Amino acid sequence: MVNRKELSPESSPQAAYGARLRRSREARGLKQDDFAAMIGYSGRHISGVETCSKPPTRKFSRSVDAALGLVGTTESFERSWAELRNGSLLEGFPEYVGYEGRAAELKLFESGVIPGPLQTRAYAQALADSAVERGVITCEQAEERVSFLIERQAALVRPTPPLVVAVLDESCIRRPIGGEVVMDSQLQRLVDFAAQPNTMLQLAPFSLGERRPFDRLVNLLTLQDRSVVSYVESQTQGHLDRELTSVLPLVRAYHQLQAESLSQAASVAMINEVRKGTP
């Protein structure tokens, strides 16, 4: 066969996905163009996924499953895609999100950007689009990133919703993301969040200076059995921890942060001042 690229499925999870796609297609006697016509993609796209020059997406994987009769099975390509996606996330984050969706209480701290559970779709899209422009992710991956966030937020909407406490560094509300309209809508989302009966919002003002105990994302989850899980994230690493000796210092530091931060009323007032353009 002319220009047939040999695959190395052991080289990476994405390569394993591509090799399995080729095997499944060829086992049914389908050429790339024929298979592409079945699932609504081009033959070039099929070739790209098989040879790792294009990453698979959830939409693509679902189309493959429908064509091959693998929907809902343990061999589904959507299942492989989920494992592939989780493998590309920071260590500990997929497991953390699973805990987050079942937690009784969430305590969030973030600096620089609004935390995911509080983001509007437009704000999240602006962040994802920026990553595309920088060449970090593809357009399809950006779409998946936003969809994943919306699913994550939906998991917090329950008959008995969790208590959600968010302490945000002042930089979160002053750093413009997505333009004036997007940012104004995001700040309104924070005001609406603060008004809910199961939430608490506080801002850690710049004036805290060196008294601010955290310099990066820190999330604390209280589970239904009252155990506490911590998740700390840097630019390149995420760490999930259930060890009490490691988690308790973070819990204490979070309480100290709350005590030093603005009250919810003062925090909402600052947000409204920023929306009006008041220094």
Describe the structure.
The model has no long low-confidence stretch (mean pLDDT 89). 50% of the residues lie in helices and 13% in strands. By secondary structure, it is an alpha/beta fold. The chain has a 6-stranded mixed beta sheet, with helices on both faces. The chain folds into 2 domains: 75 residues, lambda repressor-like DNA-binding domains (434 Repressor (Amino-terminal Domain)), CATH 1.10.260; 147 residues, 2-Layer Sandwich (Endonuclease, Chain A). Helix 1 packs antiparallel against helix 5 and helix 2 crosses helix 3.
Quick overview of this protein structure:
The protein has 279 residues and is α/β, with parallel strands linked by helices.
The second-level CATH architecture of the largest domain is 2-Layer Sandwich
- What is the SS-derived class? alpha/beta
Rg over C-alpha atoms, rounded to the nearest angstrom: 22 Å
Number of helices: 12
Number of DSSP-assigned strands: 6
Strand order of the largest sheet: 3-2-1-4-5-6
As residue ranges, the low-confidence spans are none
C-alpha geometry: elongated
- Tell me the count of domains: 2
Biggest sheet character: 6 strands, mixed
